[in-house]
Amino acid sequence: MADQPAQPAEHATSASAMRRGPRGGAEDVKAAIFAAARACFARDGYQATTIKAIAAKAGVDTKLVHYYFGTKQALFGTLISQVFTDFGLLQDLFIAARSGRPGGAIYVRQILTLLDTTPEGQVFIGLIRSVGTHAESEQIMLAFVADVLERIVGPQVTPEVEFRSSLVGSQMLGLVFTRYILKNPVMMEASIDDLAEAVGPTLDRYLSAALGLPD
Amino acid sequence: MADQPAQPAEHATSASAMRRGPRGGAEDVKAAIFAAARACFARDGYQATTIKAIAAKAGVDTKLVHYYFGTKQALFGTLISQVFTDFGLLQDLFIAARSGRPGGAIYVRQILTLLDTTPEGQVFIGLIRSVGTHAESEQIMLAFVADVLERIVGPQVTPEVEFRSSLVGSQMLGLVFTRYILKNPVMMEASIDDLAEAVGPTLDRYLSAALGLPD
Hints:
Chain A has helices at about 10, 15-20, 25-50, 50-60, 60-70, 70-85, 90-100, 105-115, 120-130, 135-155, 160-180, 185-190, 190-210. The first copy, chain A, is an all-alpha fold. Chain A is globular, with a radius of gyration of 19 Å. At the A-B interface, helix 9, helix 10, helix 11, helix 12 and helix 13 of A face helix 9, helix 10, helix 11, helix 12 and helix 13 of B.
């Protein structure tokens, strides 16, 4: 019941929208919209994707997309956080760090494999590409970082965890940037294994070593 | 004499251009153009700066700017490589690595101070900002990386040195990106000292540790 529309009055009148939605309850409708959004963003990138195109692909009215997910920016933010946490990547890295095991190399391997082989990978690269010159992309990226961290760590993110994970983020962003956007030949041609071996211990150190922490 | 124009015939006829140049030899003219370019790029950024504006500031004909430095892209590339090597930053890091001393923290401190406090720092940040969406900036950045490496290491840059320095570049680029472009609050608010302590050992390891090297 928690996933039922919170303001049914507005949408009870939008019977045509509900009729145009897939059969089933709110969860099915949301899942259909989410799958459509994932496909559209992966195919067309953030800027070229419209709510109208997502609604058409999901076979629902655009109002339903807005109703469940808000603006395009909010939908996209929800989607990339969800994809990222679905893959379980950062969780494993944090768990490894907590138990004193090195998890960095596995993490680098998983991220680069995601970027090299999945449509969502292209969406992430497109997002990073736009951050420097597109204020909305910058906002999405910042919200994404904060959202993923909260999903994994919980609402009580300490300044220490924020600093350590920002250091991890800085290295991963730089790695992705040099390999996929700047297209530095050495970084493009290096194998995922070589990069994972080289960069993994950096992440382990950022998460576990004694560091001077900001006040 | 090596710095005399290599094709004097073309420019001997451009007497008006020479008259409009500052007094003194080719070196003085080049230095005046270079100082003007530095000031213009620092004030207006790469994309808004024109050869005409640089020539006007240097008090010379635009033809002389093209004659000595080629296109705007080439002039800008020469300038940022020169600024970077003038500061002596990467050289010191390489020298430290060769003699087994940690140089990473000093390097991070110097780069962040350069970016925080000098007009040239703003030009670098502007360049990195544009790389993702402006093909010319991408080319400039790639040429800059290769040029700086060759200035420091000499023409015989081995694949190992390229890989190690690309790893250093990936971390530094990511650090600059998260602090100045994405404006991650934690990275913006962290002191230069905290960042230098945290990131410095990463650079030392990339330059000196045993790494799996690409074939």
